[in-house]
Amino acid sequence: MNLLLLIGAPLLTALAVLMARNKQQVKWISLGGSFLQLGLALALLLAFRQERAANNTAQMLFEQQYKLFQSLHISFHFGVDGISVAMILLTSFVVVAGVLVSWNIEKMTKEFYFLLLLLGLGAYGFFISLDLFILFFFLEISVIPKYLLIGIWGSGKKEYSANKLALMLMGGSALILVGMLGLYFAAGNSFDILTLSKATISRETQHILFPLLFVGFGVFTALFPLHTWVPDGHSSAPTAGSMFLAGISMKLGGYGCLRVATYLLPQGAKEYATIIIVLSAIAILYGAFATMMQKDLKYINAYSSVSHVGFSLLGIGMLTQTAITGALMQMVSHGVMTALFFAVIGMIYDRTHTRMVAEMGGLMKQLPFISTVFFIVGLCSLGLPGLSGFVAEMTVFVGSWENADAFHRVATMAAAMSIVVTAVYILRAIGRTVMGPNTNEAHLVLKDANWNEKLAAILLVAGILAIGIAPGWLNDLLRPAAEVIMNRITGQ
Amino acid sequence: MNELLTLMKSELVLTGIIFLLLFIKIGKGMKNETLLPLVQVLLLVNFIFGFVFNKEGRLFGDMFYTTSLIAFQKNILNLGVYLISLLCTDWLKKNPHLPEFFLLLLSALLGMFFMISSANLLIFYLSLELASIPVAAMANFDLDKKRSAEGAMKMILSSAFSSGILLFGISLVYGSTGTISLPEISQRLDGSSLQVLAFIFFFAAFAFKLSIVPFHLWTADVYEGSPIATTAFLSVLSKGSVAFIFMTMLYRVFQPLLHTWYPMLVILSIATMVIGNLFALRQQNIKRFLAFSSIAQVGFILVAVSSNDHMGSTAVIFFVLVYIFSNLAAFGVASVIAEQTGKERIDDFKGFYKTNPFLSWILALALFSLAGVPPTAGFFGKLFLLTAGGAKAAYWFITVAALNMIISLYYYLRVVRAMFMDKNDTPIEPLKISAPVRLGTIICGAGIILSGLLSWIYDYIHSL
To answer: Which pLDDT tens digits describe chain B residue by residue (464 residues)?
Structure first.
């Protein structure tokens, strides 16, 4: 399969949206384009499985390379392994759902969909890049759409949040940039990930570059204590914006932490593993306890995202194959789950015009579909077996437990404790909004989900179930790729 | 004779245009409505002509030399002048002294051409003067505005001061090496303290022209007072041409003094970036804002200059090209707004997107490019500057530069926020965009998007 299609489809869709004459055209073009992307992602999954089944054991499949900036040895080199395929699949699900839930956007519709598609484009490009320069280009491409989406279509203190997000993410990028240039010169003028993964980089250089790259990407994925843009950004963004931010953008960071920082600088990863574990354990617990204090549904999900994303960083820090597989599973699982969570919150807000838990109650009667989905996503978040959250977190814990010393065990147990806290805040939030008597008369006349909202929710629930009930396919995708990374770490 | 024609082709064509304008002026004269399109076409022809018949060689007993790289640099400047003539149409049309303005502008451009081509301190000094004195007169072109006269006064005084310093430097160089031919000087430099002193005088003069901190104080006032066409010329073309010759001087002539100028460059680069950025944060006037941001951009250019190799000079030339598109687009939009409404404050831009979506997108693109955000060319430009600077493994240096990019993003976003997000009950009404301005903004917009993505442009510069 030609991977250029994955960039071409969103690009053409975005350009077509610019050409569209009215709002209806804009919406239908975007929807068509996003379904095309979903189709491409599924086709990629099938093609990838076929190649692997046919014993094609190359590290990267469907590789292509075009020379750009030859004098600097930059090339547009791309290809996918299991991790990329999983992430691309996640992206395409979230893009479709994001387009669907934004169906009623009235203000500057064309610009909204254009920026949304541009964000998706950045993510696809990022996940297929095998050249650090191009990877960085696609990572940065998404900063401005995020800024504008929050600033123009957001709510609450949107200008503040948009500024904070853009500046913190740019700060992360600045660190990545320095680390990337360091790698470039340390490995003899190459940005190519596959070349860099074979280069020998001295311990001292790794010691300097690893924290730059890990923290840089960490900002994108809410590494404690650089997570502060997450609650503000997520809660101010429009529904689709929050979905993209939490579902896709935070995964860019996690992917970068693993693929760039850990994979290319294994020695550095080993040295700093302790710090990563401590920080992510703090993030997991702090996120969970902070969520307990929140009264706004979006803030609840934003802080719980900090906690959940902590599991992927914890998995990376544990440096065992199972833990890394679990970390990747958690990224995919959390991406789908949190996108659904924000979508449902958006649907509720559109109807009740409030996100405060205390102002709602007994929505199950008026909004049975939305409430049911809310229930499912809540249960997924607290890790109920059969849903994706359980599989992912369990894998992280099993992998962490493989480290037999006291420090790792204590960290694992501390992280595991957060599940109890999660259960408390999730059940409380859902119980108060969905169950019980209806406390607000205005809420008695609400109408349940429209076709577009139902479709979006069903797609994402299907994703959660597909991972939760039959995690084998995801495991097959991720484990061999994680093994390559582990071999690089243990090989040194 | 034939050699003279081919090697000095750019200069001769330009002189031809200057004489033509002169004859038109002293002859019957011409209405602005016909003269301006004529000048625009001539400048376009001049730009296209710059691509062909480029030869390498030396003239006048090695005082003047040209290479394909120099021809390319000159053509970048040609492009800039053409774009200015398009973008400032609104202002130029109303100008009662249009021929004089272009006479001055093209004379300054001619000075820059000779400056880039100079291989001798004498011709270098003369051409530098030719490139700066007309600009002072151009700064005074809003004849009825006091600020314009003030700007011109500051410009001419600081310019004369820096020329004096430069002359002193030149005389010290001549005194210690006994020659004014640039290639010979580099052979005779041995790092004696007199030569270091001479170099510091040289450096200070360049710092004046490039507005490197602490020699930047004239910049903001001159930019604010001058008409936008002059400001654009000063901030883009003067800076660009001086940056070109500055690199040649450092790499070719003062190479033996590398250990002196490298630390100087690093310190001044950081100071320039930080101070330019910090002052830009609080500006309200769009021209002052762009002035301080252009000071910060010079700081970034110095990052690459410090690399002392081919990669650095390529990155700088590429960046100047990108900078021409980005900064001129920003000045062009500012010029349209200022000419039709008289508004120059950033707060006046609130709600601009609602009424003028096209100009808003162009200005936003330009600002993103200046901030170095992809997919604009500014991203590539900035990244290559830092890459070149990082070649010496000066991690902390490029870290400081990268952090400065965040500060600059903050203030560029301030303008974007005003245009796209802030509400305003009395936004600027829909503006008329004349055909030349539209053409100019579209060229700039296309340049901002394409000159980075089309990677062969960078490779072409590298191959020269």
So the answer is: 577 777 888 888 889 999 988 888 888 777 878 888 888 888 888 888 888 877 787 888 788 888 888 888 998 999 999 999 988 888 888 888 888 888 999 999 999 999 999 888 889 999 999 988 899 888 888 888 888 888 888 888 888 888 999 999 999 989 888 888 888 888 888 888 888 888 889 889 889 888 888 888 888 888 888 888 898 898 889 999 999 999 988 888 888 888 888 888 889 999 999 998 998 888 888 888 888 888 999 999 998 888 888 888 889 999 999 999 999 999 999 888 888 888 888 888 888 888 888 888 999 999 999 988 888 888 999 988 888 888 776 788 888 888 898 888 888 888 888 888 888 777 788 888 888 888 989 999 999 988 888 878 888 888 88
Q: What's the rounded Cα separation, in Å, for the pair A363 and A365?
A: 5
Residue of chain B whose Cα is closest to the Cα of A69:
B455
CB contact under 8 A, B455 and A70: yes
Contact B425, B353 (CB under 8 A): no
Q: Quote the CA–CA distance of B227 and B136 in Å, as a whole number.
A: 11
Phi, psi for residue B190 in degrees, rounded to 5: -125, 5
Write phi, then psi, for A450 (nearest 5 degrees). -80, 180
Mutate which: A170, A207, A210, A213, vs B, most B CBs within 10 A: A170
User: Is A181 in contact with B420 (Cβ distance < 8 A)?
Assistant: no
In 3D space, the residue among A64, A51, A185, A75 whose CA is nearest the CA of residue A137 turns out to be: A75
Distances in Å between the Cα of A40 and the Cα atoms of A4, A116, A340, A461, B372 are: 11, 18, 22, 20, 32
> Cα dist. B170→A98, A100, B119, B163, B173 in Å?
66, 70, 14, 10, 5
Is residue A152 within 8 angstroms of chain B, CB to CB? yes
Token pair, residue A174, equals 């600045």
Contacts with B321 (C-beta within 8 Å, 6 or more apart), sequence order? B76, B79, B447, B451, B457, B461
DSSP string, B81-145: HHHHHHHTHHHHHH-TTHHHHHHHHHHHHHHHHHHHHB-BHHHHHHHHHHHHHHHHHHHT-STT-
Neighbour count for residue A8 (Cβ, 10 Å): 14
Q: Do B402 and A167 touch (CB under 8 A)?
A: no
Cis geometry, peptide bond prior to residue A145 (ω within 30 degrees of 0): no
Distance from CA of A166 to the nearest CA of B (A): 8
Q: Residue B266 has which token pair? A: 């690093």
Residues A223 and A283 sit within 8 Å (Cβ to Cβ): yes
pTM of the full structure: 0.91
Helix (H, G, I), strand (E, B) or coil at B59: strand
Q: What Cα–Cα distance (Å) separates residue B434 from each residue in B86, B92, B130, B336?
A: 10, 12, 33, 9
Helix residue ranges, H only, A198-356:
203-220, 229-236, 239-244, 250-256, 263-264, 266-292, 297-318, 321-352
SS3 state of residue A62: strand
Residues 6+ apart with CB under 8 A from A141: A118, A121, A122, A125, B374, B375
| Distance, CA of A234 to CA of A390 (rounded, Å) | 24
Q: Is A64 an interface residue toward B (CB < 8 Å)? A: no
For chain A, the residue count is: 492
A178 vs B373, B399, B406: nearest CB = B399
Distance from C-alpha of B404 to C-alpha of B274, rounded to nearest angstrom: 7
ipTM of the complex: 0.89
